[in-house]
Amino acid sequence: MKKFIALFVAAFAFIAISNAQTSIQPAKVGVSYGKKIDKSGAISVKQLEKALASKDNYTGKIEGEVIQVCKKKGCFITLKREGDQEPIMVRFTDYAYFLPQDITGKTVVLEGRAKVKETTVEWQKHYAEDMGKSKEEIAKITKPRKDISIVADGVLVVK
């Protein structure tokens, strides 16, 4: 019986710890998330687009403006592109960290790997749900599309 109680207490403690919310620091200039990085050597989103026009991927630092953040828990952001192009999706290595909701409108430098990939209808709908889009907007997603996707090891707020 003592073993059962000890096992029950251990399981309860494990569940409580694993469900604990870590506080996410507000997005202010100089705040880092994930791997600590600096802004030196970062290229712009426009330069990234040019680099990906001639090769399959890019590894390094990218600077851009955050225009959206995942409404569920900050598990991804999107970066602004010129014109009416789809924004660039940025996810985080192994979902090891999350970003705050107040990062929208901030300029960040991130370090990671970028590539052009096809995003399936299923994933587009998943991201749209996470962004809080309406069922009508989600229903309009019917075709896969080519997108730039980034997996970031670290993010630094610079403006």
TrEMBL record:
Residues 1-20 form the signal peptide. Keywords: Signal. InterPro entries: DUF4920. This is DUF4920 domain-containing protein.
